[in-house]
Write a structure and sequence with these properties.
This protein is about 80% helix and about 0% strand. The protein is an all-alpha fold.
Length: about 200
């Protein structure tokens, strides 16, 4: 059996390699465009073999979507850490406000533009939103486990992720003139006025 220190070292090296692949991919996408960047170029620049690349990712699209996927995993802990909110929509709002601070970077605007550059990537981006909605719904159900609330919680998750999508689009259109949280707050206020 492996010693814990060896396991930690291996895990750390795997995380470092994964991050190096993502950073290299992002740099090459920026320099050569998404279509002009090959999987082999990412592997070569990251200092790994093609085979090693496939130990981490299945495609160059997955490299681009890595940050989005980690965002999906962050929803549950963000929602469950705040026990002050007693109404599901307010818990979802508070969760997403904490959550968006991770995406207020120039890199995220760049990634978003890339994800809108081809039909296939746009479809993958929409799938990420669906995953986020599912993660938020699951976390809401964990927080409010009564079966009688399931339909209402599904609506809350759908509405909250819709608010996030519209806020993200406005943030991108205005080239991050304000923090993403600003647009998110405004859109939740708009939703509250009209529901």
């Amino acid at each position: 059996m492996e010693a814990p220190a060896e396991m930690c070292l291996r895990d750390r090296k795997r995380c470092e390699t994964r991050q190096r692949i993502v950073d290299t991919g992002r740099r090459l996408f920026s320099e050569k465009g998404f279509e002009g960047t090959t999987l082999d170029a990412i592997a070569l620049e990251a200092g790994i073999s093609r085979r090693t690349f496939f130990s981490y990712f299945t495609s160059k699209e997955d490299v681009l979507l890595d940050t989005c996927r980690s965002a999906v995993g962050a929803i549950r802990p963000n929602l469950l850490e705040d026990r002050e909110q007693t109404v599901p929509i307010e818990a979802a709002r508070a969760c997403l406000l904490r959550f968006v601070s991770r995406f207020e970077t120039k890199e995220s605007i760049f990634d978003d533009r890339l994800l809108r550059s081809t039909e296939a990537l746009r479809a993958r981006k929409q799938a990420i939103y669906a995953e986020m909605e599912g993660a938020l719904f699951a976390a809401l159900c964990e927080r409010w486990p009564s079966a009688s609330q399931r339909d209402a919680l599904r609506l809350v998750a759908t509405a909250a992720i819709g608010v996030l999508r519209v806020a993200s689009e406005k943030w991108r259109e205005e080239n991050a003139k304000h923090p993403l949280a600003h647009y998110l707050r405004k859109n939740f206020e708009l939703l509250a006025k009209h529901v």
